[in-house]
């Protein structure tokens, strides 16, 4: 065991034994790089004007909550436990700031609906032209709306898995929360297992390049720049593929949540 692991174990023992304030502060400082890592990954899917320092500030609140709730005796790595709360705190902070204009938000929702309805009608992945026809707009306008969705929507698999209309924290079930076994009850876990299987089927049905982007970003942990290098694409093209993939997945999961298909 490395010196850092020994030091962290000692801090956890001190904090959990007596709620030692200094130990808590030292734990937060020790795991601050985790906040910066999560914030950095999120920043890649947000518009340039969103300050990365704000993301870190929001994430620290999630880290503080994770330190308070973590139980070392459960045998789960703290990093695994904390990521869900850090990411959730950042997203909550962004939503509270509400930096997306309402008109843009409405256009993005309309785009999501168009993907959902077009692909349900065609029973396959729709092209930009086909989705544009559903919306009654040109392909040029369609690309503009995709860029809006890419630059102003917090589009991720976390939102795909959850119920975006629900306020109950137990149903905000992103990929990150699937690792938090101190959260949902057993019946919720059973439901999450079914949802995860449905999501896996939806990912398998994505066009090849979009499926690869999703796999490399969410499951392999690569950055947008690294994915671009692997696929021989620009970062903007990777982001565009990611946006299309999430739009399609949101549509597929909508039908699953509402109709079980």
Describe the structure.
The protein is mainly α and 261 residues long. The protein has helices at residues 3-18, 21-30, 32-43, 52-69, 78-97, 102-122, 128-135, 139-152, 157-161, 186-204, 208-219, 224-231, 235-259. It has 2 domains: 3-97, RNA polymerase sigma factor, region 2, helix turn helix motif (Rna Polymerase Sigma Factor, Chain: A, Orthogonal Bundle), CATH 1.10.1740.10; 102-259, Butyryl-CoA Dehydrogenase, subunit A, domain 3 (Up-down Bundle). It is built from 13 helices and no strands. It is elongated and about 65 Å long. The relative contact order is 0.09.
Descriptive key words:
261 residues, mainly alpha, Rna Polymerase Sigma Factor, Chain: A, 2 domains, 13 helices, 0% strand
């Amino acid at each position: 065991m490395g010196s850092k692991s020994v030091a962290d174990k000692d801090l956890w023992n001190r904090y959990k034994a007596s709620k030692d304030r200094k130990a808590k502060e030292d734990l937060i400082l020790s795991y601050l790089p985790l906040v910066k890592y999560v914030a950095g990954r999120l920043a890649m899917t947000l518009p340039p004007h969103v300050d990365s320092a704000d993301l870190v500030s929001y994430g620290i609140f999630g880290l503080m909550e994770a330190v308070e709730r973590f139980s070392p005796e459960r045998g789960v790595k703290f990093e695994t436990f904390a990521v869900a709360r850090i990411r959730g705190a950042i997203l909550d902070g962004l939503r509270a700031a509400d930096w997306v204009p309402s008109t843009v938000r409405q256009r993005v929702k309309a785009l999501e609906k168009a993907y959902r309805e077009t692909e349900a009608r065609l029973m396959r992945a729709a092209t930009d032209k086909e989705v544009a026809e559903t919306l009654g707009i040109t392909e040029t306008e369609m690309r503009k709306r995709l860029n809006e969705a890419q630059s102003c929507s917090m589009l991720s698999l976390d939102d795909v898995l959850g119920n975006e209309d629900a306020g109950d924290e137990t149903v905000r079930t992103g990929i990150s929360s699937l690792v938090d076994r101190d959260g949902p009850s057993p019946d919720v876990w059973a439901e999450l297992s079914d949802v995860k299987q449905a999501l896996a089927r939806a990912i398998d049905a994505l066009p090849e390049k979009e499926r690869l982007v999703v796999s490399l970003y969410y499951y392999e942990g690569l950055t947008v720049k690294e994915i671009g290098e692997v696929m021989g694409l620009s970062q903007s093209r990777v982001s565009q593929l990611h946006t299309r993939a999430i739009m399609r997945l949101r549509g597929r999961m909508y039908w699953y949540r509402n109709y079980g298909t």
